[in-house]
Amino acid sequence: MSSSSASARATLERTLKSAKGPALDEVASKKLLKAYGIPVSKEEIAQTATDAVKIARKIGFPVVAKVVSAEILHKSDIGGVVLNINSAAAVRKAFNDITARVKKLRNKPKLEGVLIAQQVKGELELVVGAALDAEMGPAVLFGTGGVDIELVKDVALAGAPLDASEARELIGRTRAGVKLRGYRGKPALHEASVVKALVGLSNMMADAGTRIASVDVNPFLVNARTGVAVDGLVVLNKSAAKSATGH
């Protein structure tokens, strides 16, 4: 049984009811993650290059710029992510470059804006996520994240919902968990934030029933003090969502 709050469940229902495409964009995905207690990076969406500069100065450099579109699921594949931005001029250039690349795409995706986000320093890149598994039903996953996730293949699954003890057990089944708890003299990192994220994701899946097909948080960056969801993608099971809302 889910241990989520009433406000989290209300946010979930509003989000699913208003969703139009096959997936939530990054901004909507992260709002849902945050509602379920999963920490996210400081960020704000910009509609103009001038807005982007103002947001970057408010957040503090360095920042990251990312395309926001529910129709672009893999942002880096189209040049929709710019890292290590350290000046107002670089923010303007990143905003203009990203919008120009989107306009050149053949499928003409709808651009919601450009996300200007805090660039978080992490000691370890993890993946936390969830999916509707054919055998297990709603399940959460944990493992080594980053761009090499497919090569490393260090991921473990557990049924949802799960509690903190079960989340720690899931973490312990991976090589990422060994690194998280301190490896070869390195200090242990902030496991509590990972546990909180896994429990939150499991509650979200339990509350959604079959209306969410998958949740992908990669990377979830962790250091000695905290852990933060730097990216997030919620993919919907639209047929289930429509029947649940009567649409």
Automatic annotation (TrEMBL):
Which parts of the sequence belong to the ATP-grasp domain? 30-66
Which keywords describe this protein according to UniProt?
ATP-binding, Ligase, Nucleotide-binding
A Pfam match: ATP-grasp_5
Q: Which GO terms describe its molecular function?
A: ATP binding; ligase activity; metal ion binding
**InterPro entries, per database record:** Acyl-CoA_Synth/Transferase, ATP-grasp, ATP_grasp_subdomain_1
Q: Does the keyword Ligase feature in the UniProt annotation?
A: yes
Keyword ATP-binding included in the entry's annotation? yes
Q: SUPFAM superfamilies, per this entry?
A: Glutathione synthetase ATP-binding domain-like
Q: What is this protein called?
A: Succinyl-CoA synthetase subunit beta
Its source organism is mine drainage metagenome
